[in-house]
């Protein structure tokens, strides 16, 4: 394993996403696959629209088969996104339940005098904030995976249509990402 892969694996274990995936491998895998499927369908829909617009500019008429394919892609995209979000909610609920159980067990073995000095309101505010972060993490993961997949599909299409355009986009993106204040 390279240093970069090791750093990535370490970050995943210590991040909120690592927390979500640690206790629920099956839900995490389903979430990942459905998010990738949803992103791919979204990208395919964008490509179909781009292809149809190009055909219309060339003077070709739109056809019923293209419209039916567009509608089918939208329905599949919506269904995959819905399922991904359902798995995200389930994953979040499982993770939150397990965290609360571990927290309760830890509190049983803790000297509560120090916690009482903090005050009940502060403790509840911190717990609420932390659970909200965990709850939002799965949805963020779904949308991030979908977005990355759409970008990859569109950039792949750009490579097929115009390799020089692809290289220009990759160069501009590389320069932009390399700028510390961009």
Folded structure, characterized:
Helix content is about 90%, strand content about 0%. The protein has 7 helices and no strands. Helix 2 (about 15-25) packs across helix 4 (about 65-110) and helix 3 (about 25-55) runs antiparallel to helix 4 (about 65-110).
Give the helix/strand class.
Answer: mainly alpha
Shape: elongated
Mean pLDDT: 77
Number of helices: 7
Low-confidence parts lasting 5 or more residues at pLDDT below 50? none
Oligomer: single chain
Helix residue percentage: over 70%
What is the total tally of β strands?
0
Measured distance between first and last alpha carbons = 31 Å
Radius of gyration: 23 Å
Main sheet properties: none
Listing every helix as H and every strand as E from the N terminus to the C terminus, the arrangement reads HHHHHHH
DSSP strand content: under 5%
Task: Give short descriptive properties of this protein.
7 helices; mainly alpha; 90% helix
Secondary structure elements and pairings:
Elements: H1 3-14, H2 16-23, H3 25-57, H4 64-108, H5 112-118, H6 120-161, H7 163-178
